[in-house]
Structure formats: C-alpha cells, structure tokens
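Batch queue: ligand-bound targets. Current item pairs a single chain with glutathione. No template structures supplied; prediction is de novo from sequence plus SMILES. Inputs echoed for audit trail.
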Amino acid sequence: MIKLYGFAVSNYYNMVKFALLEKGVEFAEVAAMPSQESDYKSKSPMGKVPCIETDKGFLSETNVILDCLEESVPSPALLPKDAFARAKVREVMKVLELYIELPARRHYGELFFGGPRNQAAFEEAKPVLENGVKALTQLCSMKPFLCGEFSLADIVAAHTFIYAAPVCQAIYGWDVIGAIPGMKAAIDAANARPAGAKVLADQQAALAAMQAQNKG
Ligand SMILES: N[C@@H](CCC(=O)N[C@@H](CS)C(=O)NCC(=O)O)C(=O)O
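Prediction returned. Tokens below.
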C-alpha cells in the first residue's frame, strides 16, 4: 500500500492526497515534518514534504508524484487523453507553482509564523504574481474547471490559492482569486467533490490544531 508522508497543513501534501482520493487508491498517511535529518532525507532528498513510499521505493516532488500516480493508475483520469491537451494542463500547473505558489510563499513567514516583513519579497513578488494571474486568465477556459474537465490543474489550483489568497489579501490588499475570472467557482467546485471536501476538512482541522498549539 502507498504511504503518504507529510502533514495535513502542507498544501503540497494535500495535492497528492486529493489525487490519491480521487483515484480511489488505498494509502496510509504517515506523519512527517520537513527535515534536513539524514533519516528523512533518505526518503525525500530535499527534506521536503510530501513524499510517498511505494513497493518500488520512495518518490518526492509533488508534480512528479502526481505524474507517477496518473501513469500507474490511469483511471479515473486526472489528465486529458490527448497529448497536447495534457501538456496544456501541465502548463497551467507549472504557472500555478512558479508564478503563484512560489512568490506567495515568500510571505509565509511574515503571515503565518509572525516573522518580520520581507521587504525584498514585498517588492519582487507582486509583479510575478500579477504576471501569473494574467497567464492563468489567458490559459484557463473555466468551462467549468480550469482546463475544461476536472484535472490535476484544479487540484493544484485549490491547494495553491488556499494560502496564496490570504497572503495576497493581507500583504497587498488584493483579491487574487477574484482577479481571475471563473477561478472562485472552479475552486469551489473542486472543493465540493468528496475527495476535495475530505482534504479540506482535514486541512482545516490540522491548521486549527497547529494555531491552538502555537497560542498555548
Ligand atoms: N518542490 C516541492 C516543494 C514542497 C514544499 O515546499 N513543501 C513544504 C511544506 S508545504 C516543505 O517541505 N517546506 C520545508 C522546506 O522547504 O524546507 C514539491 O513540489 O513537493
């Protein structure tokens, strides 16, 4: 049985969990935090969350894990059959990661962990995010999901904006989801799926527990 290592506050972890649930794959969740200790790095070489353990070994990097799942469990499909259409979904996933997730993540310390204002990030991240928003507006049909049928792009979007949206609101006073026509409805529809709702409920419970622990 596949083991999924990580924790339910991690948005990358939740992308993999969402895909596993959508595909009806049996898996076990193994609690793990990012770590530079050699034991964890023997499983996930960059020390990041998530990684999975399969009967063939460990695998890290979320988009790689998602691709491996899609190839090893093709049904129900989370990518279109046509090669070009598949690539278009991956193009959207790449934009979400490089130009929404990563610049927004530069503010996580300030927003979620009480760190100081990252002035360099404040100036540098916004233009990257704005370009990302334009690219997504251009690329996504939103009919009704990002690339038409429900796909990995919707899973990645739901769990990218889950933290990028509060970051943009708090740091820039900017409704980043509202800036992309159709994005809110597509994310709401993804989160309303049984798999999406389960992942979101677990994420919210884990986040509340983490916040309570940090206060106490
Ligand atoms: N490129 C990695 C990024 C995963 C990632 O950044 N995970 C976070 C938790 S949400 C983490 O492990 N952070 C600790 C670190 O960056 O050292 C992936 O796609 O899986």
